[in-house]
Amino acid sequence: MRYRPISPAVLADELTERIDALAGRRRIAVAVDGAAGATETTELADALVDPLRLRGRAALRVPARGFLRPASLRFEHGRTNPDARYTEWLDVGALRREVLDPLKESGEILPSLWDAERDRATRAERVPVPEGGVVLVDGELLLGAGLAFDLAVHLWLSPAALRRRVPDAWAIPAYERYEEEADPRSLADVVVRVDDPRHPALYTP
């Protein structure tokens, strides 16, 4: 795969332009996918909000972490089980039901469902997204689960960088399985190599 070096600021500008052109008059959902703690999914999603708003787009952040399952389900097989992290931590059904489906229908979405730190419901209120609005969903292992994103950005790490940068070493097999089974680079619309987050590189086919 060929990669073009790009600054974080220019990456945000190019993504903003692409999202703006894609949205038109409809509401869209954008995934920013990458390994937790090792890729800057939150930072990139945050960097898109103001530029989109300057273009007249309502932009709403929805961290996927707000849709993790309760601890009793996530940790049923232990707190450091990589297979559970891959298949059981994210409540895919809730993210689809509370965010992605209503975004296309009523436009009123739930920005979070579960507070994983306190292990209780967030009791968040539904938020209306106007026509032409953009919902930015950031998190890990988002692709390949049947979630209907209009644009998917994958922050990719080489195998060596993955082992070097992931803070939870026990979770590395989950990401390796994701790479092998889901092949997120083939599913994403935009792939960015982030072995060094200060110097990303954009995949160019």
Q: What does this molecule look like?
A:
This protein is of the alpha/beta class and 205 residues long. Helix content is 36%, strand content 20%. It contains eight helices and eleven strands. Strands 1-11-10-9-2-8-3 form a seven-stranded mixed beta sheet, sandwiched between helices. A hairpin with a 7-residue loop joins strand 10 (190-193) and strand 11 (201-203). The longest helix has 16 residues, at 8-23. The mean pLDDT is 97. One of its GO terms (molecular function) is kinase activity. InterPro entries: P-loop_NTPase (IPR027417). Keywords: Kinase, Transferase.
Characteristic terms for this protein:
205 residues; alpha/beta; two-stranded antiparallel sheet; 36% helix; 20% strand
Shape: globular
- Helical proportion? 25-40%
Class based on secondary structure composition and strand pairing: alpha/beta
Query: What is the terminal separation in angstroms?
Result: 7 Å
Low-pLDDT windows of residues: none
Percent of residues in beta strands: 15-25%
Tally of helical runs? 8
Protein name: Uridine kinase
GO molecular function: kinase activity
Keywords: Kinase, Transferase
